[in-house]
Fold:
Amino acid sequence: MNKLELIAALKSKAGISKSEAATVVQILFDDMAEALARGDRVEIRGLCSFFVKEYKSYLGRNPKTGEKVAIKPKRLPFFKSGKELKDRVDR
Structure:
């Protein structure tokens, strides 16, 4: 399911216009992205959680040349499925 399919499903199930459904989906995604950017955890009970992992800097290696390269610290978003979602998918 992509964003347009999600908008269409919301439109039909909630009985709202396509533009209203698109606005709701966009607000949801924007607020989730802003929370993750702040380092907050986003949890949707029974479905999933999103969180940010922080990595320290480390010394890597360029696979082509073998040269040592300093890797900067970084923060990456992660997704973890909830138990109910795991059970539903594994039917």
Observations:
- The first strand starts at residue 42 and ends at 44.
- The longest helix spans residues 18-38.
